[in-house]
Every structure is written in C-alpha cells, then in structure tokens.
Amino acid sequence: MRIVIAEDSGLLRQMLTELLTTRGFDVIGQAATVPEVLRLVAAEPPDVVILDIRMPPTYRDEGLQAAQQIHVCHPAVGLLVLSHYAETSYAVRLLELSSHAVGYLVKDRVQDADRLVDALHRVGAGEVVIDPEVVQRVLLRPRVVDPLERLSVVERQVLALMAEGRSNTAIAHKLSYSVKTVEKRVTAISQKLGLPHPDDHDRADVNLRVLAVLTYLRTVDHI
Questions:
Q1: SS3 call for 104
Q2: Which has the least CB within 10 A, 35, 58, 66, 87?
Q3: Is 77 in contact with 45 (CB distance < 8 Å)?
Q4: 158 with 175: CB under 8 angstroms?
Q5: 153-193 pLDDT per residue, tens
C-alpha cells in the first residue's frame, strides 16, 4: 500500500515513515504543509494520505481542508486524519466529506502500531474508521435533546461500534450475536433515527451506516 504523510513535525514524520516501512507499507512522499501534500498527491496519487489536522500556517484545520481538496480531485485516495484531541466536530466534518475510505484517529494511537496499521488497511479498503475515544465522548456527555433515547441499550451498543467503523460481522463477533441479529438491529436503528429505508430505491446511493453515525455524533451539538 502506497502512503503519503502530511505532518509538520519532522520527528513524527520520520517516526511514521520508519514504522510503516517496517510494516510493509511504501511511503512514497512526505510533506510539512498543505501545498506540499497537494503537489505530491497530484503527481502520484497514493492509496492513503495520512494528514495532521493542524498544520501551517494557522494550525487550526488545514488538514481537513487538504482532505477536502484531495477528495474532490482524487476521490479514490483514502484519507486518515490525525488529531491531538478527540474532537467530535472534526469527525463529523470528515464523515460529511465522504462515506467511505476515511478515518479519524487521536495521535496517541500512533504509539500503538497495530491500531495504526489496522486503520490504514481499513481505510485503504474503503471502510470508515472513527477513534473509539471520540465515540466514548459522545456516550459520556450529557444531552438535553437526545435522539439516541429512542434506541434500546443493545441498539446503542451496536451504533457505538458502527461509529468506530466496524462491519456487521465484526459487531456480531464483539457482542456474541449472529450477523442476522446485527442486521436487524441496524435496520431498527435506521428506522428509529428517521433515516431512509434500505429498500427506498430513490435513496439507494445513501450510506445508511454513515447517516446513522452522523446522527450519533451530532448529538453533542444539542448540548
């Protein structure tokens, strides 16, 4: 898998490059700024771009801005965004950008090589990956208006795992359910959150899992 790394810290860039190279990845480019990473991707689109969320010149959300430009020009390129903090709003923006091949990890996960490698493989395969810490922040924060109150305890468990980007098979394994049971839960979640029905041909292009996760993450906006 070919990787481009966009990170303003030279030390972290080098660490990531060495780690990923030893795990069999091909790091084909490194960048410290948004213009640099955009040039690299335009010259040779990789399979996945790793983007620091805060880069020069303002150190605010340049990584997300770069992700948007890359997605528009190179929609087949996967995007894995790294952040120092588990910011729910950033995760929502990323999911609004694309319903596949995107990921959001807290930078502490970089120290866990297996988790980082797993995230890269999953994003490269077209999956959505959201850091578990982001999911937990949504679970633990109090809400005045909470659409999740419509869901049962089990449905919330399924939705939390969906928010991490887990497949129905992975959710079934985690909760010791059958895949068919998980599918029924996912359908129930979609119905209770007022999302389009899977059989609605007019909305066949809608990724219901991502819509459900967005509803889940956006609950913090009602605080």
A1: strand
A2: 58
A3: yes
A4: yes
A5: 899 899 888 888 888 999 999 999 999 999 999 889 888 88
Phi, psi dihedral angles at 7 (to 5 degrees): -155, 125
CATH class of 2-131: alpha beta
pTM as predicted: 0.70
Strand ranges across the sheet with 26-31:
26-31, 2-6, 48-52, 78-83, 102-106, 128-130
The 3-state DSSP composition of the chain as helix, strand, coil percent (nearest 5) reads 55, 15, 30
| Domain layout of the chain by residue ranges | 2-131, 141-222
Distance, in Å, from the CA atom of 23 to the CA atom of 114, rounded to the nearest integer, reads: 9
CATH number for the region 141-222 comes to 1.10.10.10
Can you list the positions of beta strands (E) in the chain? 2-6, 26-31, 48-52, 78-83, 102-106, 128-130
